[in-house]
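dumping this here so i dont lose it
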């Protein structure tokens, strides 16, 4: 889900439970806040419904995300 505030153009992106998809790269670009699942540590990459902390960090960095919030 990507929410953009009309006046300020501030953007919040929420991914819920999901594994890494290349489509997320453009979806999170320039988000002010990215809230995403990070259930696993390194070594469990490519899980179908959960990111690893490393995958989320890479996604946020490549997308120039300002604030990253990890959840589960």
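and the seq i came up w/
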């Amino acid at each position: 889900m990507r929410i953009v505030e009309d006046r300020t153009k501030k953007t919040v992106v929420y991914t819920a439970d999901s594994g890494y998809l290349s489509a997320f790269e453009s979806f999170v670009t320039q988000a002010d806040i990215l809230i995403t699942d990070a259930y696993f540590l390194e070594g469990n990459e490519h899980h179908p419904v959960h990111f690893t902390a490393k995958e989320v960090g890479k996604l946020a960095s490549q997308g120039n995300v300002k604030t990253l919030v990890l959840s589960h």
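The mean pLDDT is 89.
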